[in-house]
């Protein structure tokens, strides 16, 4: 069992350390400074074929200091938050600042943008779980999956539970703290027939342990997903509609967000540079972030610079309505921060939703993709090419599993060709979306 983790005490200690670092930076001549500090503790157990493989008790902490001397910037970090380490870290950051070039965009976010509304967003639900209890949950998950007829082997099951505290402070006088927790359980199984082996998995991930799915249910779903892949063939080569499973569709949202991130934009490394206000998706599609959503996986009242977070509508009735900007990237672009230092938080779609069965019928003949492989996405051009596996669909019905093929297109064209979104929303991550049906993608198969 890991040592007790007193989140409130850790919060107080980290806040004190952050203020100590800020005071020292000012004393050493910094015009401004910011400090991020965190501590996390967790338990992880993995089992395989009914035996315990690993038990990991982890405790990680760190402190990062950034100083500004005029418009010269220096940053340093340490995994030790003791006073001696803090002094060494601040001194190192000051030393680095003396050798960096001037950057007109460098500096803290504007003081008037600092978060003032910092509510408890219900994201901290620790789990007093012993390693023995964690092991039994993982074993029961794998056991339920292995008991399903046709499962021949296992890549194991894993359970992890953890909580942590993060603090951000800067020389504007802002100090924000947040506690959080995350718990997950996963299982990966293997089945075999005359055509070879197939594997697949299932998992559950939540803030509150009471919301974890039943371990046996996770194991059985992993088995079901594995068995349905047996007998896979290569599909025909051609142009077909593609139905992206929700976990794959969330990746498409991720590619969109990477393309509208300030860092890619000011470096001219995005296919969506200078595209604000232009249509990207059908008019019925909108996308926003909701960082203050209670209990959600990425909720936070302030971003990585202390700026108050807010609901941002990135896609409004199909048009690109906003970029995703930190203070630095906003200055480089001559714009205003959107409170997105550290990324977007809790992305949610607004669109008419169709059942999965309706999506299959609308598709008629095409491919349902349940797995993607490789990194074939060019953020500069939007070109998209990924290895894939899934199922062949004919007459609106799933016919047989398919593998060893590639799907290709261009992200801008794919977004424009979005025909429908499913009601089968995957809520396990920070991006909530159902399946996406996209017309006219190039498939390279047999």
Automatic annotation (TrEMBL):
The keyword Translocase is annotated on this UniProt entry: no
Keywords: Hydrolase, Metalloprotease, Protease
The keyword Protease appears for this protein: yes
InterPro entries for this protein: Metalloprtase-TldD/E_C (IPR045569), Metalloprtase-TldD/E_cen_dom (IPR045570), Metalloprtase-TldD/E_N (IPR002510), PmbA (IPR047657), TldD/PmbA_N (IPR035068), TldD/PmbA_sf (IPR036059)
Stored Pfam families: PmbA_TldD_1st, PmbA_TldD_2nd, PmbA_TldD_3rd
Residues annotated as domain Metalloprotease TldD/E central: 125-230
EC number: 3.4.24.-
Domain of life, per lineage: Bacteria
Limits of the Metalloprotease TldD/E N-terminal domain: 33-97
Positions of the Metalloprotease TldD/E C-terminal domain: 237-445
Annotated GO MF terms: metallopeptidase activity
Family (UniProt): Belongs to the peptidase U62 family.
Protein name: Metalloprotease PmbA
Gene for this chain: pmbA
